[in-house]
């Protein structure tokens, strides 16, 4: 009997340490943002605009911006087509069932600005909506066939968000004046994604910072633990809405594409 207890004590000593170490290692991996973790306390928060990574075909910045691209939106506006500010677009066959959502997203813009959209005919520059694992777009008009990726989880507001990128607008949270309006909590950002929250140079068009913009990150984008990564200085404001263009979104588009001048010429 004594030998049995000695053997049992030895097994506990040998196996106890490694098992505890293995358990702690798993906890550390989960806390570092394991996308497969099911824990309610430690997980990588994913959104339609933050679900993509570098692939063989595309590389992404800030979750949904296809790189490379220039940061000067003013030089990347779409050209007129037959004297009208209308952007040609094409929807890939794989997205045929998403056509109503895509056209609704286009109307969110055309109903409030001078920017119109029409099916691609023979124009050199045009948008092409393709199936993807998430939502993503280049910024501004790059020339030629220009892809916008639409994933299964991309709703109308997410699609509109990507179209705005394609028209030349960047995420609001990356503006140089963002420090007056939001606080970035880098300790809650998943490993390797801190650069997506850095201030970037760009043309603000002289329009105020907009926490209500459809182009603003949400409060827990790229969170590694479910806690906020962005906190508005005005605690009553909610960020990251994807339901409508804000008044300043409309103003920015109208100024970028000189809508007042175009409308006065009619």
Outline:
This protein is 27% helix and 14% strand.
Task: Please describe what this structure looks like.
The protein is of the alpha/beta class. The chain is 27% helix and 14% strand. The chain is built from 5 helices and 9 strands, in the order H-E-E-E-H-E-E-E-E-H-E-E-H-H. A 5-stranded mixed β-sheet has the order 4-3-5-7-6, covered by helices on one side. The protein has a two-stranded antiparallel ribbon with strand order 1-2. It has a two-stranded antiparallel sheet with strand order 8-9. Strand 1 (59-61) and strand 2 form a beta hairpin. The longest helix has 30 residues, at 2-31. The protein is globular.
Key words describing this protein structure:
alpha/beta, 266 residues, 14% strand, globular
Topology:
Blueprint: H1 2-31, E1 59-61, E2 65-67, E3 86-91, H2 99-110, E4 116-119, E5 126-131, E6 136-137, E7 145-150, H3 156-167, E8 182-184, E9 230-232, H4 247-256, H5 259-265
Parallel strand pairs: 3-4, 3-5, 5-7
Antiparallel strand pairs: 1-2, 6-7, 8-9
Separate helix tally: 5
**Category by helix and strand content:** alpha/beta
The helix/strand series, from N terminus to C terminus, equals HEEEHEEEEHEEHH
* Computed CA radius of gyration, to the nearest angstrom: 23 Å
What's the rounded overall pLDDT mean?
Answer: 80
Number of strands: 9
How many strands, what sense, and barrel or not for the largest sheet? 5 strands, mixed
Mass-distribution shape: globular
Helix content: 25-40%
For the termini, the CA-CA separation is 101 Å
Amount of beta strand = 5-15%
How is the largest sheet built, in terms of strand order? 4-3-5-7-6
- Uncertain residue segments: 2-42, 69-74
